[in-house]
Amino acid sequence: MISLLFNPFKFIAGIKSLVLGLVIIAATAYFGFLSHTNFPDLISVKICPPFSLGFFLWQSLSNWLVFSIVLYVGSLIVSRSSIRFIDILGTQALARYPYVFCSLTGFSDSIQQFSNYMLSTYMHKGITVTLTPITMITAVTLLIISILLTIWMVALMYNAFRVSTNLKGTKSVLLFIVSFIVTMILTFVISNYLRTKFT
Questions:
Q1: Could you give the residue ranges of the DSSP H alpha helices within 36-97?
Q2: Is residue 37 within a helix (H) or strand (E), and if so which, with residue range?
Q3: Residue of higher predicted confidence among 6 and 164
Q4: Could you say which of 1, 39, 157, 189 would form a disulfide bridge with 95 (CB–CB 3.0 to 4.6 Å)?
């Protein structure tokens, strides 16, 4: 069971993982569209204004594609093994399945209320907001769940990278970290560009 949760790539790879991963990415984008939950970079989760479905689809696709391309290029540079781009694409797409659950958190407005409360109480911005205990508990619970889902997804992304490239040890860790940082920057820029095109 643990292996299925954190390393399903031993059982599903190649075209199968790509097809399943694309379904997962599309579902994440669709639920994000309905709940106004967007992913402004590789791993961030935020509530956003209403945008068209196209915004969420392009954003989710770019987060996946950019990371896959950066990992592939980096792997070609440091690895002597034969690496198939389809394997990286498929496993990285499948690794994003925890964010299907993250995209559902926006259906509760408790996080937005909690954010407004923090802004008004501690930064003196916006209108004064009063939170009920239930709203606060719900918001904190959803935030903790989102953090745990993010950690889970990063673990999946790393395991997907190791399986699809056959890299191990310090070399795989360093390449993953560098690729991660580069992708965070690139996807943030792309998301900001998409905002200008879909507003």
A1: 53-78, 85-94
A2: strand 37-38
A3: 164
A4: 157
